[in-house]
């Protein structure tokens, strides 16, 4: 594979030497009157289809412009539009430095309209870590914009997944599927990132909160070349809200079913008169009960941040997050499923409200993070970013769960107690350099990562406990504190070091042909140390290295239409490499081939995307006991996931729309102890379709009002890998929204599961239970915005 990649790399680089174009370019910086860089300014060459957006430094570039005289326009919210004549010469770059004047009247007018026009986003911060339009990226990427989050009145990532093409929440915790692969925080360390940096804030038992999230980006398929180890299905990236130079305050409140209440406040603006020091402060509180007996959860969230602008070229941002969760029955242990003893299962036999867990079960989690980001632009072609992120999660819980089959409407249970302290320290630094070799434009990204993660303490105990009658449960004999009799014991600490470096080159061969070449090298080492003789594993260690390539080609027959093909790879070291089990084992790897189409229409207000892919996943660890070693394990060839995805997203006049369809077939490739060749992979439905349409009224009588409706269809799918008869039923779930905005106030009503359909998110590792989705429920919200 390495020799093939080298040959392809040399061939593509050789091609670039022969490409020729007589076009020119225009670049520049856009600043405010106070000489602050302006981000997301729309730059257009009038009477053409060519344009750009400024990045966080106010920089823009428009390449491959035929020679001639043009009128360049620059516009953004809150500033008066600017027009300037510009002359483009062959093989030359024209440099412009422009200022925009503030226009508060325009800002107030456009703010109202913006509620209707922000479903589509044409840039992503996670796909290549460079300011390149999505249409030029040879991989499937979807961005859930701030307006979509508001219209959905989404509190957690789980609330958003019904609008993400091919993404499925497998349970009411932090487990999600992309392209048929399950990501489960924090075991898949790069499954979720924050601002493109590893180090998730939330644990596997939690739904990620959205208080401080500006938008959510989905990068589908392997992405290890930028993010190191990760899951094959893709990456979900949270883009956090940053300090702004303009004063702004927003307060929101919501109330809903099961006594759910939520409050948040978001304030930003300058601290100093020269507007060099900016702040943002976000606080939130929510609590809710459940349709299940005894369950409840309470969250407190605080996220202060500061940005200091040393100059238009240099800034540093410090961001802190604090999230505390207090709950009863924190884990989603699901709802009972009846075994009909004939190879079928009845998912509708037992009532919704029942749970195997006890009223005495509890969970207490405290998550904290601190992130420092330093950006410096040496000149218009060279910039540096350095990010240091530290995350710590402390978790204490007690829990009852199913440990056997249901007999005579009763079930055996186990009891566990867990005291856990996890950490993640990530240092990332990368240079972005723009250079031309003849007529060819290069955007080169070179970076290094150091990641140290693991846990300071892992005290886990599990043992059998009382049996329970399902329909008439009696919890009086449940264990309220750690059970002194322990059948299984973890008492250890663990540290993993990841050191990696990567180089990426985005090549503009011509106005119509782009190439992406990148490669990464990673070195991985893990050491697990017992903290007492009670620990069952008594230590573990492993080492691994990996070369991870990525390359792709993009052809643009029109400036707003592209076709692409790409090859990407991922790796993930084994979670266990114990010598007593036959280790060490080679890391898990995945290779993806993808082809696709992207198109932007109606002045980039509506985007469409279609992709087809195949992913081969190898080196899965499976039990392989022998007469001399009952704990022996072995790697098996793995699985293959193939599929097609289509997405449409954006705005047409008064209508906002987001829709998608995903077909996936994920199967085992060989016979092993985890299943037989051809077995369907768990929680990987063949079909997922979603659509949501929101209409905004503009007439005098209903101006400011909006209504929307949509839903998601999920086909039936296997809920347990070893038992292919355990089929989670197909489901269709409809949602509706209505809002009314008047001046700075917005009133909103969301109804979820409008028809009160009984549906299941997915399987939960046993044939006895499955994750049940929420019945019909509502949220009534109000937001107040001050500029």
Proportion in β-strands? over 45%
Gap between N and C termini, in Å?
56 Å
Residue windows where pLDDT falls under 50 for at least 5 positions = 1-21, 104-117
The whole-number mean of residue pLDDT values reads 88
Shape: globular
Per DSSP E runs of 2 or more residues, the count of β-strands stands at: 45
Number of helices, where a helix is a run of at least 4 consecutive DSSP H or I residues? 5
The share of residues in helices is under 10%
Compute the gyration radius: what is it?
Answer: 27 Å
Largest sheet: 22 strands, antiparallel, barrel
Short description:
This protein has 787 residues and is mostly beta strands. It has 5 helices and 45 strands.
Q: How would you describe this structure to a colleague?
A:
The protein has 787 residues and is mainly β. It contains 5 helices and 45 strands. The strands form 9 sheets. It has a 22-stranded antiparallel beta barrel. Strands 3-2-5-6 form a 4-stranded antiparallel sheet. Keywords: Cell outer membrane, Ion transport, Iron, Iron transport, Membrane, Receptor, Signal, TonB box, Transmembrane, Transmembrane beta strand, Transport. Belongs to the TonB-dependent receptor family. This is Iron complex outermembrane receptor protein. It comes from Spirosoma utsteinense. It is a multi-pass membrane protein.
